[in-house]
Design a protein that fits this description.
The chain is mainly α. Among the domains are: about 20-90, Herpes Virus-1; about 100-180. Helix content is about 60%, strand content about 0%. It contains 25 helices and 3 strands. It has helices at about 5-15, 45-50, 75-85, 105-115, 120-135, 140-145, 150-160, 165-175, 180-190, 190-200, 205-220, 225-235, 240-250, 255-270, 275-280, 280-290, 295-310, 310-320, 325-330, 335-355, 355-365, 365-375, 380-395, 400-405, 405-410; strands at about 35, 40-45, 70. It has a 3-stranded antiparallel β-sheet with strand order 2-1-3. Helix 5 packs across helix 6 (about 140-145). It is globular. The model is unreliable at about 1-10 and about 400-415 (pLDDT under 50). Pathway: Protein modification; protein ubiquitination.
Length: about 425
């Protein structure tokens, strides 16, 4: 709840929040006080939640809310901020001045200006940049913008104004902040010219433009149920090279890595074109960047590794990388149940194809990891993969590894 980080230290030191600074709904210090048509003041998030759940009355007076406009109470907010500053000695932090939500009338005007083909270039560009700023500010703003058919307008600008690269890339930057519906995804994915344009933008001089292009590609692939359409998109020239290069780029930052991994995974779900990912250098890049990824991105990267290990060229490429097997062994039980399952699956594929990978896995300590895995609370699929891998690796174990292993003796693995 908003204000929790402020209320807790107040309670600890016995500092009382002035009654009129508390929201009547949440009873917490207000961060963005707004006044409704009955004259009562509430914290914006609280009254918005109240109305969103179907309530049409003022929580305090119970009078009907004839108008759902919430007017910022700037005077009260400044008083609250001053009170916070006065009590900094008690660990109270000043509440930042909240940004006001986008005005629907202004949003409509900006979209009209941006889409006006007959208008001069600069006003259109300024309108798109203003929309981008509003969309970045809050989910509320994005909801307001989306409610005015913004996605349709932005798609049209992205692909109709490709001659004016600046307009196109600004519209693209706004568009990727919204989730497209299936028909919008199909309108992009079914047009070869649009797919080629996005693929070409993966090599733009600006890393931001490249990331946004990859983001839209992933959005379209994820939002399309047609396997034929996904195959058509993933078969576009150099689309894998562009996405892999985002991951390989040393200037890539967390958002770039996240979107690069998501786009590559979406592309690799198409079986027919996985060999293109291998040709583009995806195996080595995934292994090299795995340590730089957070939990969710690492899971997706490991899932992609397992997918690519299902084709011969992928297996060969991963087996040729000196860090693949040790890194996969190390990953087991370290990140999450999903990550463990994908790592075990990839190791299974590699070890099934290569005795060298089997020896590497044993040397990296896979035996202990797998024994711990089958006795853990992880998924049944992960346990099955671990049992299959233990059976496959049996001939590669050191002679004394079974007889002297208490872990093995008490494991649930049945004798082979």
């Amino acid at each position: 709840m908003p204000g929790t980080t402020i209320v807790e230290p107040l309670d600890l030191v016995g500092l009382q929040i002035p009654y009129h600074f508390r929201c009547p709904i949440s009873l917490e210090l207000m961060r963005d006080p707004v006044t409704v048509c009955t004259g009562q003041t509430y914290d914006r998030s609280s009254i918005e939640s109240w109305v969103a759940t179907g309530n049409t009355t003022c929580p305090v007076t119970r009078a009907p809310l004839s108008d759902f406009t919430f007017i910022p109470n700037h005077t009260l907010r400044r008083l609250i901020q001053d009170w916070c500053v006065e009590n900094q000695a008690f660990g109270i932090q000043r509440i930042p001045t909240p940004k006001q939500p986008a005005d629907p009338v202004m949003v409509r005007a900006l979209l009209t200006q941006a889409s006006a083909v007959s208008s001069p270039f600069q006003p259109r560009l300024s309108a798109l940049r203003r929309l981008k700023g509003l969309a970045r500010d809050s989910d509320k703003n994005r909801s307001v913008i989306s409610s005015h058919d913004a996605r349709e307008v932005l798609i049209d600008i992205v692909f109709s104004d490709t001659g004016s690269s600046e307009l196109s890339v600004e519209a693209l930057a706004v568009l990727v902040m919204f989730q497209l519906n299936e028909s919008e995804c199909e309108s992009i994915g079914s047009d070869p010219n649009r797919v080629v344009y996005l693929s070409r933008m993966l090599f733009h001089s600006s890393i931001e433009v490249r990331i946004n292009s990859a983001s839209l590609i992933e959005n379209v692939l994820s939002g399309t149920r047609s396997s034929d359409l996904r195959a058509q998109i993933s078969n576009a020239d150099e689309i894998f090279e562009g996405v892999v290069d985002i991951l390989r780029n040393l200037n890539s930052y967390p958002r770039a890595l996240r979107i690069g991994v998501r786009a590559l995974f979406a592309l690799c779900l198409v079986k027919q074109t996985r060999h293109k990912a291998v040709q583009a250098g995806a195996p080595a890049t995934l292994i090299d960047r795995l340590a730089d990824l957070d939990k969710c991105d690492a899971e997706r990267a490991l899932a992609t590794i397992e997918l690519l290990c299902r084709i011969p060229s992928g297996c060969s490429a991963f087996a040729a990388h000196a860090l693949t097997v040790p890194l996969l062994v190390k990953t087991i039980l370290k990140i999450s149940d999903r990550a463990t399952e994908y790592a075990a699956g990839a190791l299974m594929a590699l070890c099934s194809e290569s005795e060298g990978s089997q020896r590497e896995a044993v040397s990296a300590g896979v035996l202990t990891q797998l024994l711990l895995l089958v006795q853990s609370d992880c998924t049944e699929r992960a346990k099955r993969k671990a049992q299959m891998l233990l059976k496959l690796l049996r001939d590669s174990w050191p002679e004394d590894s079974i007889g002297n292993s208490d872990d093995f003796a008490c494991s649930e693995i049945v004798p082979f």
